[in-house]
Specification:
There is one protein chain. The chain has 541 residues and is of the alpha+beta class. It contains 18 helices and 18 strands. The chain has a domain of 245 residues: D-amino Acid Aminotransferase, Chain A, domain 1 (2-Layer Sandwich), CATH 3.30.470. Strands 9, 10, 11, 12, 13, 14 and 15 form a seven-stranded antiparallel β-sheet that branches. Strands 2-1-3-4 form a four-stranded parallel β-sheet. It has a four-stranded antiparallel β-sheet with strand order 5-8-6-7, sandwiched between helices. Strand 10 and strand 11 form a beta hairpin. The longest helix is centred in the middle third of the chain and has 18 residues. The chain starts with a helix and ends with a strand. This is AT22192p.
Length: 541
Amino acid sequence: MPAALHRVLKWKLSPVMPKIVKRVVLNSGFRIIKNTTDWMAVWEKHMKSPGFRTIRSHQKYNHIPGSFRIGRKDTMWRSIYNNMKKFGKKEFGFMQKSYIMPDDLESLRQVWPKNASKLTKWIVKPPASARGTGIRIVNKWSQFPKDRPLVVQKYIERPLLINDNKFDMRLYVVLTSINPLRIYMYKDGLARFASVKYSSELSNLDERCMHLTNYSINKFSQNYAKNEDFNACQGHKWTLQSLWSCLENRGVNTKRLWATLRNLVIKGIVSGESGLNRMYRQNVNFRYNCFELFGFDVLLDENLVPWLLEINISPSLHSELPLDLHVKGPLIQAVLNTALYQVPPKLNERQQADILEELNLTGPLCHDKRIFTTCLTAEEVRKHNQYTNRSIEFREEYVDTILDNLLPDDVRCLIVAEDELARCQPLERIFPTAGTHVYLRYVENARYYNRLLDAWETKYAKNREMGIALLSRYCRDKYHLQVSDAAMEKEPNVALTEIDMLHVRKDEVLDGATTLAILKPVVQEGCEVAPIPDACIEIKS
């Protein structure tokens, strides 16, 4: 690797950086540096929203401001419940009715007697805990405190069982942009089993390893069995692909089930879109700066109806077992690939020219903040206003014309979306697609970029090469780099060892920077790298 390039590829070390992330980062050509503000990327805990304003144009943070709105059990329920009231239980009834203590104490008190004679079970959860901490199953009013923050729900008493054990699914979801919405779903995941066989008897309410599926709880059970073969349906943790095999043997249509899960995930994100968009607009200066990895926990009942349990904004990436590495290694590869990490603008023209010559690349090498600016020209503002006007009530009024006169900001939005899509495997982009326009009615305000991408997918989803060719022509003319004067204003003041491999790819579409592709297998040496289109330079130490 050219020494000048190696020097600028700096990740900031954080105390919460998971080992699997560190491993992928180091295997991919980056350095991990302690105590630096001159960083290009970091994997950190969530920070207060104003902190995002200090992130510079070339820096990337692994959280989005305001994601707690769907990452906390109380605020998540309120967001989903608001949509349930607007659009009906049929559309948003995928979460058990929740009572937020102490605000909903009187409402819960009114319904409690109606269920007491039925010996109804309730599940009581802290609103912001993880790994099963503080969760209890109760059936008496006296069994939980009324004066502290809690979420109380009816317990799902008839879950789908496998080998007589309750289980849930951990789905991994990546949100790379809030405006426009771009949502990806990992094609694998985890099925997590309770280690004690399920019983609905009231005498078992305190048996946490029967009712809770969290690995952090069940791993201490004497019944817990590790799964040493990630292709097998054995033990108390399976891959999602193994679960599909088991369900297919039972006659379950897993393709239909996956479509139902996609629907749940999109509606879960959309429920918090308004608050997320507001926080993002107030605190993020560049569209490059942020993304979020969520962990959706979903339970299937005996009728195969999926129920959303919670959404985690920092899903566990601990990889103690080969099965975890098998699932989470490719996941992190895909997440970092899709996040489009780019060479920071820390190299002078001579250094860039030498590196491009050595790597046999052409075109710009470093991040160009113009591609990710949120500033618009007056003409672009007028077009945004035209296509988000309240007088536009029907999709046909924008889908046939919004692409007729693409402005530079339009092209920037489209090339980033196409570049993400080209390298997202094994993630699946579930929004936008040619059919996801049906979800736009659930978004509180019309978003110009959502409509732009809706029209784009309608026209080019089945002929993507034609769309990419169109964007390439714009890029060759540097049309996408035409920005307002405000986009060039001064930025905010803010930001491991020898590496054996770096993949640097020159994008077919995004002719403004060379992006880093995190492609080296992290689980098994000798595995083929993930496929990406066009040029990919592999540099080994």
